[in-house]
């Protein structure tokens, strides 16, 4: 288990050691979250690297990663705990057949720890040999407001109440990272318990650095063209603009096809790696893709000429 970073620079270096390219504002809020024990709330478009932050933290700090993937209808039984009803029924039948326990004793026995199924939040509150785990509550905006309200107790006191057993409190608070794609607004009461950061699409320079770290096998010319092409796509009103994850996938796909630079045919053939909706693909493929590529090449030539002066 590694020690927590002691400065913003240390935090940025920690993320870099996990091959995560972060700007200073993200490193700052992450450092404060780790130092002061506050949950980190990350909001932004899908594919901008929010979930990856929790994974990198767990890897670089040597902590366990406990992930709660949120969805509509998520309840306490799926997120915190539930009883193993099948085992409880077997225990009841066996006790009835043996006649060795009265009703009160049986009730106490079947509502004990051995019949408890721990879900992510309860697991994150348990003591861990590697130290407090990283609890990732992913895509909280997909859940309903009642579950969001339930989280208030967890984030305020890092404890949950199980009626049959009592209150379970974390010996040391876990590192909590909450993400949201902002499909709906999260209530202010929950946000107040967290430090907030908006994870935006990266600039050209930062995305170029990300690809050089994450897709080192791609040719340098291809990497620069891919990043510039994707940056141009994000200026177009698409149903779903590509995130960093799609940029990386596209660079890997083109490298697998032995491409060292973008060309119209390769773009049309692989747009399904980059764009996830047919309407967007139909809008870009063909002449529009060639127009963007020509613009990218022209701008890169101009930049090269400027630097050579």
TrEMBL record:
SUPFAM superfamilies (alphabetical): P-loop containing nucleoside triphosphate hydrolases (SSF52540)
InterPro entries tied to this protein: AAA+_ATPase, ATPase_dyneun-rel_AAA, CbbQ/NirQ/NorQ/GpvN, P-loop_NTPase
Pfam families xrefs: AAA_5
Domain AAA+ ATPase: residue ranges: 36-200
Record protein name field: ATPase
Organism: Rhodovibrio sodomensis
């Amino acid at each position: 288990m590694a020690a927590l970073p002691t400065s913003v620079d240390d935090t940025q270096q920690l993320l870099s050691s996990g091959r995560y390219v972060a700007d200073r504002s993200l490193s700052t809020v992450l450092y404060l979250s780790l130092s002061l024990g506050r949950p980190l709330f990350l909001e932004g478009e899908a594919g901008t690297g929010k979930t990856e932050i929790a994974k990198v933290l767990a890897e670089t700090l040597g902590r366990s990663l406990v992930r709660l993937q949120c969805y509509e209808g998520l309840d306490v039984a799926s997120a915190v705990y539930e009883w193993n009803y099948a085992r409880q029924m077997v225990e009841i039948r066996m006790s009835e057949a043996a006649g060795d326990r009265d009703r009160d004793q049986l009730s106490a026995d079947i509502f004990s720890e051995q019949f408890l199924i721990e879900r992510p939040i309860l697991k994150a509150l348990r003591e861990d040999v590697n130290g407090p785990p990283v609890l990732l509550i992913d895509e909280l905006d997909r859940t309903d407001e009642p579950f969001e309200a339930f989280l208030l107790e967890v984030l305020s006191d890092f404890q949950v109440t199980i009626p049959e057993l009592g209150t379970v409190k974390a010996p040391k608070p876990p590192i909590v990272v909450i993400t949201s794609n902002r499909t709906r607004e999260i209530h202010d009461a929950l946000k107040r318990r967290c430090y907030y950061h908006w994870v935006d699409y990266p600039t050209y320079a930062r995305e170029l650095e990300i690809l050089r770290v994450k897709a080192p096998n791609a040719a340098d010319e291809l990497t620069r063209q891919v990043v510039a092409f994707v940056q141009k796509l994000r200026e177009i009103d698409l149903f779903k603009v590509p995130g960093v994850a799609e940029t990386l996938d596209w660079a890997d796909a083109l490298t697998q096809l032995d491409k060292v630079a973008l060309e119209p045919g390769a773009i049309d053939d692989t747009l399904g790696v980059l764009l996830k909706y047919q309407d967007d693909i139909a809008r870009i493929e063909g002449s529009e893709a060639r127009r963007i590529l020509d613009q990218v090449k022209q701008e890169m030539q101009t930049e090269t000429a400027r630097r050579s002066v």
